[in-house]
Design goal:
By secondary structure, this protein is α+β, with helices and mostly antiparallel strands. It has helices spanning 15-32, 42-53, 107-121, 136-144; strands at 5-9, 59-66, 69-80, 89-98, 127-129. Helix 1 packs across helix 2 (42-53). The longest helix is centred in the N-terminal third of the chain and has 18 residues, at 15-32.
C-alpha cells in the first residue's frame, strides 16, 4: 500500500476531479449489465447529486488523492429502514470507485476504512451496499472488507 494516498472529505471544488472517476465507474458497469447504462445527461445529474451530498447532514463524499490528483471517491448516505427492525438507521455506500490506473494500490481499502469511520461517527451500527453480480472485482473487494450477502434483489422487465 502506498503511503502518499490522502483520504479526505470532498469539497465542491473536487467535483470536476471526481467526474472522470465516476465516468470510468459508469462505463464499467454499463458494460457489465445493460441496465446499468447511464442516460445522456447523467453527468449533469451526478454533478448535482455530488453538490447536494458534499457536506450534507445525512450524506458524505470522500475523495482519495495521490499527488493532488483525485484517484477515487466514495459517496455515502444514512438511510432509514422500516422501524420494526432493531437498527432502523443504517449506512449505505452508494458508490465507492477507484480510477482504473490506480486500482491495486490500496486506495479502495483506505476509502472504505474512512467511510466506516464516517458511518460510526453518525452513530450507525451497520452498513449496506449493492453490487452488480457480474462485477467480480467488486464482489471480491467487498468480501475482503468483511461483507456477506444479506438480501437478493430480483428484477423483471415487463
Amino acid at each position: 500500500m502506498r503511503n502518499d494516498i490522502i483520504i479526505r472529505p470532498a469539497a465542491a471544488g473536487d467535483i470536476d476531479g471526481i467526474i472522470p472517476v465516476w465516468k470510468e465507474f459508469a462505463e464499467l458497469h454499463g458494460g457489465l449489465d445493460p441496465r446499468e447504462r447511464k442516460k445522456p445527461k447523467a453527468e449533469q445529474a451526478f454533478r448535482q447529486t455530488l453538490a447536494e451530498k458534499i457536506g450534507g447532514d445525512k450524506s458524505g463524499v470522500l475523495a482519495a488523492l495521490v499527488d493532488n490528483e483525485i484517484t477515487g471517491f466514495a459517496l455515502l448516505s444514512v438511510r432509514k429502514d422500516d422501524p420494526v427492525f432493531p437498527d432502523p438507521d443504517f449506512g449505505f455506500v452508494e458508490i465507492l470507485a477507484v480510477s482504473d490506473k490506480w486500482r491495486r494500490h490500496g486506495i479502495g481499502e483506505l476509502l472504505y476504512l474512512e467511510a466506516e469511520k464516517w458511518f460510526r461517527s453518525q452513530g450507525l451500527t451497520h452498513i449496506e451496499l449493492f453490487i452488480v453480480p457480474a462485477n467480480i472485482l467488486a464482489s471480491s473487494f467487498w468480501k475482503k472488507m468483511g461483507y456477506s450477502p444479506y438480501l437478493e434483489l430480483l428484477y423483471k422487465k415487463i
